[in-house]
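Dig into what follows:
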Amino acid sequence: MVIFQKRVPDLTELALARFLARARRAAGLKAAVNVLLTTSAEMKFLNRRFRGKDKPTDVLSFPAEPEASQHSAGEIAISAEIATKNGFSLGHSPAEEVKILVLHGVLHLRGYDHECDNGQMAKLEKQLRAKLHLPDGLIERVSTSVVRRKRRQ
């Protein structure tokens, strides 16, 4: 299920639902996923409540409880505002940015964690982005910006 509390230019609920189905299949995730496109204020609230971080973020993944995992893999929340801003600043559409975030969230729901998996999630995300015709993703952007900062020091 896809819920738009906040719209993103050139993206419909149907188009995002179709992409979500493709991303789930590509990632090998059989159970259903709910996606919420919402405001940065709501993302700040969710980030503070569930991660203890008092700031908005672009994407959050919430895995389903084990007893519900046969039917639901979990939920993904995305800031439409951050996705729109990042899409424009990175040279692609806000709709593509939302899709990048959905794929990233799906991989988290699949059990991957780029913070501690020695690059497994990054490698798979790169392969799936190519398969799904998406530009660079979150992990690559963070890695690239870290390398740039280190070079300037």
The domain at 2-152 is CATH 3.40.390.30 (Collagenase (Catalytic Domain)). Residues 144-152 have pLDDT under 50 and may be disordered.
